[in-house]
Amino acid sequence: MDTRVVDHPLAAARLSTMRDARTGSAEFRSALQELTLMLIYEATRDAEVVTEPIHTPVARTDGYRLANPPLLVPVLRAGLGMADQAHRLIPEAQMGFVGLARDEETLLPTPYLESLPEDLSGRSVFVLDPMLATGGSMVYTISLLTGRGARDVTAICMLAAPEGLQKMEDSGLPVRVVTASVDERLNESGFIVPGLGDAGDREYGSV
Ligand code: PRP
Hints:
5-phospho-alpha-D-ribose 1-diphosphate binds at residues 77, 102, 129-137, 198. By secondary structure, the protein is α/β, with parallel strands linked by helices. The chain has helices at 9-19, 25-43, 80-89, 136-147, 162-171, 199-204, and strands at 3-5, 49-55, 60-66, 71-76, 97-102, 109-115, 124-128, 131-132, 152-160, 175-182, 185-186, 192-193.
């Protein structure tokens, strides 16, 4: 499985803001949006483009656009904070939604929303979720997508735990990961260490 760690100094600075326990919700959401922009930028680096002629005020030249804009799928709640920024960079993208809550005892994802195109045959999908912890939520989401025919899936995450990456690898699903950091480990409560806490709570408050 291809895992790309975006270790740019600006990415590291935004991630540090998100990790810092003193950072409030508004600042956390801003840093998440800015880091999303950097991760999407890297995730589309090798995207196929269509060339078409354009006219500048001076001359005719080649213009470019994405050949196959990916479907964007934020995983609620936490992934919602990445959705607008990703859409801003890829305005022609369609967006679907998956809602999952991780059971605090079993750590298994409980689905509560699925709003996706029926047929994803041959489509590329970007799944947006700040945290890849045990990997249960991401594997569940990617299985949903490949079940509808998605050809390749990119998981865009602020942080990934080695345990979650291993689970994705073992799943054999057609996925690659773009993240700002692979952290040390999961603790006994299933939190990423050092991590940043609970991304959904830090964006929107605890429920
Ligand atoms: C968090 C996070 C991921 C999931 C990661 O969501 O945003 O979706 O847990 O954990 P996993 O890799 O072990 O499955 P949570 O269930 O806390 O819901 P929220 O986004 O509504 O806060």
